[in-house]
Amino acid sequence: MEIYLDNSATTKPYKEVVDKMVYALTDQYANPSSVHRKGVIVEKEIKNARKEIAKYTGAKDKEIFFTSGGTESNNIIIRGTAYANHRSGKHLITTKIEHPSVLNTFKDLEKDGYEVTYLDIDNNGLISFEDFKNALREDTILVSIMHVNNEVGAIQPVDKIGRYLSKLKRKVYFHVDAVQSFGKIDFKPSKYNIDLMSVSGHKIHGPKGIGFVYIKETTKIKSIVTGGGQESAFRSGTENVPGILGLSEAVRITMENLKDNIDKINNLKELLLNEIKSNIDNIKVNSSENGVCHILNISFIGIKGEILLHYLEEDNIYVSTGSACSSKKKGSHVLIEMGLLSKEIEGAIRFSLSTMNKEEDIKKAVGIIKEKVEELRIIINKR
Ligand SMILES: Cc1ncc(COP(=O)(O)O)c(C=O)c1O
C-alpha cells in the first residue's frame, strides 16, 4: 500500500478522467480541424469542454485557451502581454518566489530590454502590499503574482492587488499563476479583477501536458505560438484532444464539490500537522496557519530532507523536499527568501495532500516518519 503525499508535484487522475481519455483516444481520434463528419464531432467535443471549463471559471468560452500546462501558460501569457504592450512601457512586476516558468521568463525579458521588479517576501512567504504599490511606475504594463506558492502554500493577496490595479487610470495587466490555487481556493478571476490566469491539468487530478489560460477578452496580447490558427490563432497546433476532454472532466469533478473538497483537505492537513507536532520534536513549521489547504512544509532539524525522503519511500510514503521541478537543485529559493536558517532549509519536507488521502493513512505515515526521524537522528549523533 502506498501513501502519496506529493500532490503539489502531481495528482493521480480521477477514473472518470482516464475513461474520458481512453474514449478520446479510441473513438474521437480525428483531427478537429478536418472538415469531415468525424472531425466535426471532435471539434464539438472540444467546444463542450471549453464551455464546461468557462462555466466553472466564471468566464466566457472565448476567454479560455488550451495549452500544454502551467509552464507554457505562464510563458505565453507573460511574453505575449509584454510584447503586445511595450509601447506603453517596459516595466514588469513579479515576486522573488515565483515558479521557475515565471522567473526564467522574466529573466529572458530582461535580456530583451524590459525592466523587472522582483518583490521581496516576509518570513511567512508573503509580499507586502505597500512594496507592491511602491513598485508601480508610469511605465508598468504587467504585474504577475502567483496565487499560492507551490513550496510553502502561502496565499498572496491577489484580490487586493487586482482591486487596486483595476482602479488605476492607466491599464496595468494582472496575471495570476493559479496552478496551485485552482481547485483549492474558491475564487473567480473576474471577481479578483484578474486579466490573465494560468492553470495546469495534472494538479487537479487531470492529465499531464494539458492546461488552460484565462484571458479577459479586452486584453491586448500577442500570440507567440504561430501556425495553423487553432485556439482562435492564439495558440496554434493540433489540439491535444484526450488531454482537453480529460481536463474538462477533472475541472467538473473538482469544481462541483469545491467547498467539500477544500474542507476535507484542510482537515487532513490539520491532522497531519497535529500528529507531527505531538509526536516529533525539534521541528519548524514553514507553512503559515493561513496557507492553502493542501500544502504543509516542515523542517526536521538535524536531518537532511532528501535522506528522509528516500527513507520514507522504502515504506511507500512519497513526499517532496521542494517543488518537483527544482528539488534536484541545492536549496529552495523560496525558503532562502523566507530567511530560513540553512539547517532549516536542509531539513525541509513538503507534504501535499488531496481528497484521495485518508485519515488513517496520515496517522500511519506520521508513525513511520517519527521512526525514521529518530533513526536518522541517532545515526547523525553517533558521528
Ligand atoms: C505554481 C506553479 N506554476 C507553474 C507550474 C508548472 O506547471 P506544469 O507542470 O503544468 O508545467 C507549477 C508546477 O509545479 C507550479 O507549482
UniProtKB/TrEMBL annotation:
<protein>
    <submittedName>
        <fullName>Cysteine desulfurase family protein</fullName>
    </submittedName>
</protein>
<keyword id="KW-0175">Coiled coil</keyword>
<dbReference type="InterPro" id="IPR002048">
    <property type="entry name" value="EF_hand_dom"/>
</dbReference>
<dbReference type="InterPro" id="IPR016454">
    <property type="entry name" value="Cysteine_dSase"/>
</dbReference>
<dbReference type="InterPro" id="IPR015424">
    <property type="entry name" value="PyrdxlP-dep_Trfase"/>
</dbReference>
<dbReference type="InterPro" id="IPR015422">
    <property type="entry name" value="PyrdxlP-dep_Trfase_small"/>
</dbReference>
<dbReference type="Pfam" id="PF00266">
    <property type="entry name" value="Aminotran_5"/>
</dbReference>
<keyword id="KW-0663">Pyridoxal phosphate</keyword>
<feature type="coiled-coil region">
    <location>
        <begin position="248"/>
        <end position="275"/>
    </location>
</feature>
<comment type="similarity">
    <text>Belongs to the class-V pyridoxal-phosphate-dependent aminotransferase family. NifS/IscS subfamily.</text>
</comment>
<feature type="domain" description="EF-hand">
    <location>
        <begin position="119"/>
        <end position="142"/>
    </location>
</feature>
<keyword id="KW-0411">Iron-sulfur</keyword>
<dbReference type="InterPro" id="IPR020578">
    <property type="entry name" value="Aminotrans_V_PyrdxlP_BS"/>
</dbReference>
<dbReference type="InterPro" id="IPR015421">
    <property type="entry name" value="PyrdxlP-dep_Trfase_major"/>
</dbReference>
<keyword id="KW-0408">Iron</keyword>
<dbReference type="InterPro" id="IPR000192">
    <property type="entry name" value="Aminotrans_V_dom"/>
</dbReference>
<dbReference type="InterPro" id="IPR018247">
    <property type="entry name" value="EF_Hand_1_Ca_BS"/>
</dbReference>
<keyword id="KW-0479">Metal-binding</keyword>
